[in-house]
């Protein structure tokens, strides 16, 4: 079999742990498999580098950030390859460029456009283990780009797709996908299987166990994706098509996203095209807008509230300022002390009352809901951040996910 194994930051967080990863890869190879390894930077390393940059600038150039941040993964890739060579294996470490990962031009959140796997393929044919530095690629100009936080998951899935690997294993510090973050609710249960669509919702709504784009790509390329722990041989969770899952629970999980901010625009001129102007300008600035609420107009003005990831807040503020300066918006305010809690499950498609139960659970805890949005398989609520853990636990309990 050809297996892609991705090891996250905690799994390569120390020299002993890198040796532990080398032992696991070696075992997989000795069982007769070809292995392509994808590694993250050592845990905490990427944040440390971000901190270094912030020492010099509040708004560092994104291209320089990519030069800086991509270095963390090069360290672990080369160290792991050295460890494997020392164990007697043929092994070669590759940057994203050498692995043929081509991206668009959007520094710090680049999308993979194509993979040219010829270097990887010729090395696999020659019997070598390949260790790829995750989280990075190269744009048309040859500049290094990074794939957004958590992006090594995407590197692994994209490589598995390009090489038509039999399996893509994501090794992390928890033993699989749980009904909610087990660090918040220790009663959370590990799922044997979860559908791509539910996993995509959970990941997009804050469950950082898998980067959302990696799930999107796994679904598109039909990659056999498994999440498991690097600390034991415990079986993980298979992420697969809905048809492969016999038992469909009403609700599969609860997700929490603390990284959201709410922007309120007051006294917005109520004219045709104003929403289009504001949100197109935000899109152009690459701000990821999520929930939007517009109130009924009054005195020829209206209020618009929306949420964005905290990381996009500065860019969003600059856009809003231009509308305030031109007089189309009277006033604006920002609130970072919010979070988004979501209930996800494909079973909702055919059952009524799931949303109502989420609202009554919040009411039972006296938690005020600020914003709501729903789709076929999720209900999301924006609440004050101080209630985040209480909300997750009470929803987990209300849908009996610990049973
Ligand atoms: P890595 O460094 O290996 O990429 P991450 O920190 O990105 O690991 O993701 C693993 C973490 O995701 C876990 O430690 C856990 O706290 C968190 N997490 C959030 N939601 C879930 C969930 N539903 N199931 C499992 N883990 C979750
Ligand atoms: N090191 C990067 C991050 O911390 C990428 C990854 O670990 O997936 O976001
Ligand atoms: Mg991760």
Uncertain segments are: none
Order of helices and strands: EHEHHEEEHEEEHEEHHEEEHEEHEHEEH
Task: Report the sheet with the most strands, covering strand number, pairing sense and barrel closure.
Answer: 8 strands, mixed
Specify the number of helices.
11
pLDDT averaged residue by residue = 96
The class by helix and strand makeup works out as: alpha/beta
Give a list of the ligands. adenosine-5'-diphosphate, aspartic acid, magnesium ion
Number of separate strands: 18
From the alpha carbons, calculate the radius of gyration and give it in angstroms: 22 Å
Which strand order do you get reading across the main beta sheet? 3-6-2-1-9-11-12-10
N- to C-terminal separation? 36 Å
State the helicity in percent bands. 25-40%
Provide the β-strand percentage band.
25-35%
Q: What form results from the Cα inertia axes?
A: globular
How would you sum up this structure, described in words?
- The model has no long low-confidence stretch (mean pLDDT 96).
- It is globular, with a radius of gyration of 22 Å.
- With 403 residues, the protein is an alpha/beta fold.
- It contains eleven helices and 18 strands.
- A hairpin with a 7-residue loop joins β11 and β12.
- The chain has helices spanning 15-30, 45-56, 62-86, 118-125, 152-162, 196-204, 212-221, 274-284, 313-325, 354-364, 388-398; strands spanning 2-7, 34-39, 91-94, 101-103, 112-115, 129-133, 136-138, 144-146, 167-172, 193-195, 225-229, 237-240, 253-269, 292-294, 301-309, 329-344, 371-375, 378-384.
- The two termini are 36 Å apart.
- Bound molecules: adenosine-5'-diphosphate, aspartic acid (ASP) and magnesium ion.
- Residues 8-9, 40-41, 46, 72, 134-135, 149-153 line the site of aspartic acid (ASP).
């Amino acid at each position: 079999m050809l297996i892609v194994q991705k090891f996250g930051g905690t799994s390569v967080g120390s020299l002993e742990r890198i040796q532990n990863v080398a032992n696991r890869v070696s075992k997989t190879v000795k069982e007769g498999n070809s292995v392509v390894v994808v590694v993250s930077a050592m845990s905490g390393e990427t944040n440390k580098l971000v901190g270094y940059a912030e020492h010099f600038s509040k708004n560092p150039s994104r291209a320089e950030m990519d030069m800086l941040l991509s270095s963390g993964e090069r360290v672990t890739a080369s160290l792991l390859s050295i460890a494997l060579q020392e164990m007697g294996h043929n092994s070669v470490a590759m940057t994203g460029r050498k692995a043929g990962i081509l991206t668009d031009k959007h520094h710090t959140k680049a999308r993979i456009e194509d993979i040219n796997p010829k270097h990887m393929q010729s090395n696999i044919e020659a019997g070598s283990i390949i260790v790829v530095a995750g989280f990075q690629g190269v744009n048309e100009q040859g500049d290094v780009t990074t794939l957004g936080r958590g992006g090594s998951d995407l590197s692994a899935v994209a490589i598995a797709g390009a090489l038509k690997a039999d399996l893509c294993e994501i090794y992390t510090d928890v033993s699989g996908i749980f009904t909610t973050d087990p660090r918040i609710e220790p009663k959370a249960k590990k799922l044997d299987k979860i559908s791509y669509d539910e996993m995509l919702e959970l990941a997009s709504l804050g469950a950082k166990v898998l980067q959302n784009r990696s799930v999107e790509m796994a679904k598109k390329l039909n990659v056999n994706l498994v999440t498991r722990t690097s600390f034991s041989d415990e079986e993980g969770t298979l992420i697969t098509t809905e048809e492969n899952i016999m038992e469909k629970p009403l609700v599969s999980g609860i997700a929490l996203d603390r990284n959201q901010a709410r922007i309120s625009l007051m006294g917005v001129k109520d004219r045709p095209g104003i929403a289009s102007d504001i949100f197109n300008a935000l899109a152009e600035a690459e701000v990821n807008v999520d929930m939007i609420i517009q109130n009924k107009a009054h005195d020829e003005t209206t209020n618009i509230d929306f949420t964005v990831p905290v990381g996009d807040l500065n860019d969003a503020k600059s856009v809003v300022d231009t509308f305030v300066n031109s007089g189309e918006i009277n006033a604006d305010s920002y609130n970072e002390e919010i979070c988004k809690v979501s209930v996800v499950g494909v079973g909702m498609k055919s059952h009524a009352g799931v949303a109502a139960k989420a609202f009554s659970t919040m009411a039972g805890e006296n938690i005020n809901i600020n914003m709501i949005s729903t789709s076929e398989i999720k209900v999301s609520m924006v609440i004050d951040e101080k209630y985040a853990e209480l909300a997750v636990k009470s929803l987990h309990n209300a849908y009996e996910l610990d049973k």
